[in-house]
Amino acid sequence: MTALELRGGPALPQERRLVTEIPGPRSREWTERRLAAVSHAVSTTMPVFAVAAGGGVVVDVDGNSLIDFGSGIAVTTIGNSAPQVVAAVQEQVERFTHTCFMITPYAGYVEVAEALNALTPGDHDKRTALFNSGAEAVENAVKIARLATGRSAVAAFDHAYHGRTNLTMALTAKALPYKLGFGPFAPEVYRAPLSYPFHDGLSGSEAAARAISLLDKQVGSDQLAAIIIEPIQGEGGFIVPAPGFLAALSAWCTEHGIVFIADEVQSGFARTGAMFACEHEGVVPDLVTTAKGIAGGFPLAAVTGRVEIMNAPHAGGVGGTFGGNPVACAAALASIRTIQDDGLVERARAIESVVVPRLKELAARDRRIGDVRGRGAMLAVELVDPETSGPAVALAKAVAAAAHVRGLILLTCGTYGNVLRLLPPLSMPDHLLAEGLDVLEEAFGTAS
């Protein structure tokens, strides 16, 4: 590899290339160093160490070029080391790296807020506050909703994932690995059943009526500060609610003065073939939380919403030392320009049009695939035992492992761990996308 190739970005050859076994000798050496230096509580999916990434590939220390169906868990949506992001970050780093917006503000923070106020659903007056991670955004959205309403109860949904802080662990549904042994958790958090068409067979309105009835009876609409929901669930299994579910919940919230929070941390920024996933259902949330794909790989998150809600906390009630870091803000503005200039919302739809038919063809031949679902470049297959229809957890692990050794980065998810999720960067060229699907099909052929 040349120095130019090692920089990543568009110059990196867009090919799957295996020059060693996976993992190779140098990755195994680094794994030993990791085990001796890094807490064993921090796990990894792939047994390789990256040295470059760009377009649709990640290159490891042994020179293997892997097809990336993970995007760093939906972070590098526009591609790794995207040219506009690199240029904007380099320029900002040369100017200054930090002042703390709460001490000496700077234009980038304001420009990101202006962009989010314009881009998020709804044409009402909005305000934005910036943070570092999706969990921080969710935690602050709940804080803001509680203060704005004077209520304390918050409702989340089955299979939800909202983060790893104490409050967001309470909101998150899955115990292992996210919650087990880390309690007690924040109080006044309640859970309602989600619309899960593959399993419940309910229409959106029927599933919403079920959830609303439970919350009304077990919590009380006058006690709820907010409900929070992922318009398309992420870690919970890429579950797409039935049409009308989100709209019915939103209408109920409006009727009862409950803040409707859309957690778009994983689904936002062109990932689903819309700028934000709730646009597919015509839903306008009161608050939207964003992170992951917002800044091309830099840590940045936001809460954006109605001015009367966002301005409710007292001055100084919301903030953080690193929130809205100037380098991350520069990256975010460049990421948004890249999405708009390169037509990446449309590109996500094009990826769906290629991937979904391939997955459905595979499902027609393999009874172990129970469901194909998702939108845009946020797609998944749920694996089941064809005899019992129960979750095929071991199969999901086996398919993922078989894909990994063949040079395909592939992630699992779901409450039971039986869902394979596909999150290719929108910058991935068509030939690499097709080859990745070929590898996935091979992995199914060898896994049992």
UniProtKB/TrEMBL annotation:
Pathway: Amino-acid degradation; 4-aminobutanoate degradation. InterPro entries: 4NH2But_aminotransferase_bac, Aminotrans_3, Aminotrans_3_PPA_site, Class-III_PLP-dep_AT, PyrdxlP-dep_Trfase, PyrdxlP-dep_Trfase_major, PyrdxlP-dep_Trfase_small. It holds the Pfam family Aminotran_3. It comes from the Bacteria. CDD domains: OAT_like (cd00610). The keyword Transferase applies. It catalyses: (S)-3-amino-2-methylpropanoate + 2-oxoglutarate = 2-methyl-3-oxopropanoate + L-glutamate; 4-aminobutanoate + 2-oxoglutarate = succinate semialdehyde + L-glutamate. One of its GO terms (molecular function) is 4-aminobutyrate:2-oxoglutarate transaminase activity. It is an enzyme of class 2 (transferase). Its cofactor is pyridoxal 5'-phosphate. Belongs to the class-III pyridoxal-phosphate-dependent aminotransferase family. This is (S)-3-amino-2-methylpropionate transaminase. The lineage of its organism: Bacteria, Bacillati, Actinomycetota, Actinomycetes, Pseudonocardiales. The gene is gabT.
